[in-house]
Design goal:
The protein is α+β, with helices and mostly antiparallel strands and 452 residues long. It folds into 2 domains: 190 residues, Periplasmic binding protein-like II (D-Maltodextrin-Binding Protein, domain 2, 3-Layer(aba) Sandwich); 220 residues, Periplasmic binding protein-like II (D-Maltodextrin-Binding Protein, domain 2), CATH 3.40.190.10. Helices cover 41% and strands 13% of the residues. It contains 19 helices and 14 strands. Strands 8, 9, 10, 11, 13 and 14 form a 6-stranded mixed β-sheet that branches. Strands 4-3-5-12 form a 4-stranded mixed β-sheet. The relative contact order is 0.16.
């Protein structure tokens, strides 16, 4: 639930592929939309132009989130030039449509060769369990992904082969870009309040009463859709625990627990900030996007949220910054993930072309192109941007990844955690439950899921 819905058509590869609706009439996942599954033998080296040419003239069918529009408009023509026997046919879908339809599409007789899914049990777990996507451990080894990408970025796409547990096992996907939660600053308002740009959460917290005393709202916040409070909590919990502790819990590691001093402290901090008036009023009636727009218009000094909001904040043209803050141990820990992953269909009859496609888009040599498209690449830390705020985003990402500080989205922990966690935080911030009760409620949902 961490991605932003988008919806636009794409013209590429000589075809206009529109946004399509939910596929109907498909067999349930795993029953097989086709009687045969084309298996391509494991590779031990990158796919060559000659390997792809042996396919003859073929079409590579690609399904993607519409947020990939700029990337694919740049990448596909170059790919088709390198592999002239391949025509790439792209279908772009809004994120909401993608997650609703991709499982049925991959199970159909006309399954795409490549498709983006979504981390978590509902989409990627189902694709793995139904054996609709090809394992990629051999691809990762051939293209050196384990040396290029961090363990956490790859572990998001590792699954036990029955789809019952993520974070370990076989690799089924990858993404070349990342997204994460950080802190936006209105530098002009901080200067007005005589507050330096914070480096740590301690410095940020110390600045809040000074900002309020200057007549400025310290933190702009909107939580009507429950996501922002989870992002805020994840950032505050990152002050006092390692990313490994959080990721073990989300992945369902044996003995993991949400009931600890750090999570209770993070919950208490949120309550304290609300009571002290550091958070903008009426937040439960304000959406994430509306709060970001209010921040962009100058309504407050800080906005804690995902870097995917950067375009709408920077569009106003204010004096903004973006960073990740260090916690108690001097490290940066914050909620984040790779973007939606790429998967190869287990039914594809043009697997060499699909592998070549993934190999190129995940190569460090393509990182600067991604940065030029205002995306945050992971394969090359030297990539940068001429846009100041985007350059700060890329630099902050490198620091976060360098600290091994990305934590999984907390709602990935169970198939009901989004509502349990989000509703629990709304009740916490309204002081209907205590921090101690909140962490117990979250842990109870986790334990019920693990017992299934």
């Amino acid at each position: 639930m961490n991605k932003i819905p988008r919806s636009k058509p794409l013209v590429v590869g000589g075809a206009i592929i529109g946004i399509v609706g939910l596929l109907t009439g498909c067999a349930p996942p795993g029953t097989g939309g086709s009687d045969t599954t084309t298996q391509f033998s494991a590779i031990d080296a990158p796919v060559t132009v000659d390997d792809v040419a042996e396919l003859g003239d073929v079409t590579l069918k690609v399904w993607a989130d519409s947020g990939e529009k700029a990337t694919l408009e740049d990448y596909v023509p170059a790919f088709e030039k390198k592999y002239p026997n391949v025509t790439v046919e792209v279908t772009l879908k809004s994120f909401d449509d993608l997650v609703k339809t991709v499982v049925n599409a991959m199970d159909s007789k006309d399954a795409p060769d490549l498709a983006q899914g979504n981390q978590g049990y509902a989409v990627d777990g189902t694709l793995v369990k139904a054996k609709l996507i090809r394992p990629l451990d051999d691809v990762a080894k051939a293209y050196g992904w384990e040396e290029i990408y961090s363990p956490y970025s790859l572990n998001q796409f590792r699954w036990l082969d029955d789809g019952t547990k993520w974070g370990e096992g076989t690799l089924y996907g990858n993404s070349p870009v990342t997204q994460y939660v950080g802190v936006f600053e209105n530098k002009s308002l901080l200067e007005q309040a005589n507050v330096p740009i914070p480096v740590s959460f301690d410095e940020m917290e110390e600045s809040l009463p000074k900002i309020k005393a200057a007549g400025i709202t310290p933190i702009v916040f909107g939580n009507s859709d429950k996501q922002p409070a989870m992002h805020l909590f994840g950032s505050l919990a990152g002050r006092c625990q390692s990313a490994d502790v959080v990721n073990d819990w989300v992945a369902g590691a044996e003995g993991a627990t949400f009931v600890n001093e750090c999570n209770t402290q993070a919950a208490q901090t949120i309550v304290d900030w609300v009571k002290a008036g550091y958070v903008s009023d009426g937040f439960n009636g304000v959406s994430m996007d509306d709060a970001a727009n209010r921040f962009a218009q100058g309504d407050g000094a800080y906005y804690i949220g995902g870097d995917w909001l950067l375009p709408q904040i920077s569009a106003v043209g204010g004096n903004f910054g973006f960073t990740t803050l260090t916690g108690d141990n001097g490290k940066r820990v914050s909620t984040g993930s790779s973007s939606v992953g790429w998967h190869i269909s287990s039914k594809s009859e043009v697997t060499p072309a699909a592998i070549a496609f993934l190999g190129g888009i995940h190569d460090p040599s393509y990182s600067q192109k991604l940065a030029d498209q205002n995306r945050v690449p992971m394969a090359d830390a030297s990539a940068t941007s001429s846009d100041q705020l985007m350059a700060e985003d890329i630099a902050a990402s490198a620091l976060l990844l360098g600290d091994n500080g990305q934590t999984a989205y907390l709602d990935w922990a169970t198939d009901t955690m989004y509502d349990v966690f989000g509703s629990g935080l709304q009740e916490l911030m309204a002081e209907k439950i205590t921090p101690e009760q909140f962490v117990e409620i979250v842990q109870a949902d986790w334990e019920a899921f693990q017992a299934e």
